[in-house]
Amino acid sequence: MNPTWPESTPGLLRLPSGRLVRGRALRRPMPDGPVPEYAVYLLGERPPEVAWEAEWLRWPDFRLPADPERARTVFRAAWERAGTERVELACGGGRGRTGTALACLAVLDGVPAGEAVAYVRRHYDPRAVETPWQKRFVRRFDGS
User: Fold this and answer.
1) pLDDT per residue over 66-75, tens digit each?
2) Do residues 120 and 99 make contact, with C-beta atoms less than 8 angstroms apart?
3) Residue pLDDT, tens place only, 73-90
């Protein structure tokens, strides 16, 4: 599999299949390097317009996605596209919602749901997935 992001990209998560996904905090400046080709913004309010294809998944801070079914569809699309495109998932701080979404992508990639939070904490950010209900969301996520 060809990497879609340079290995030095900040916030990069390598899934077991080799797919690369960038997680990031929108409150921080855009990192140097290539921009995403597809992004999922996990925010309570509509994000600003960007020059690349982007989805907005309504997700208030410290909570869960407003529409879990749509979240499942968006996560699957992000996972599929990460095989050949630069995919980014981002929220305000880059840990809670972003970590939860990345853990769901890990489940889609074959990581058992009960191990996905630990996988993301080990390979992305030790403080990813901030709340008990976000952890429970990942444990119950089946991706189907």
Assistant:
1) 999 999 999 9
2) yes
3) 999 999 999 999 999 999
- Beta strand 38-43 with 20-25 is unpaired
Task: Confirm whether pTM is higher than 0.90.
Answer: yes
Of the candidates 16, 24, 18, the residue with the CA atom closest to the CA atom of residue 4: 18
Instruction: Look up residue 21 and give its DSSP letter.
Output: E
Spatial CB neighbours of 3, under 8 Å, sequence gap ≥ 6: 18, 20
Mapping DSSP to helix (H, G, I), strand (E, B) and coil, where does residue 120 land? helix
Question: Residue 104: which H helix or E strand, with range?
Answer: helix 96-108
CA distances from 78 to 29, 127, 130, 131, 133 (A): 22, 22, 22, 23, 22
SS3 99: helix
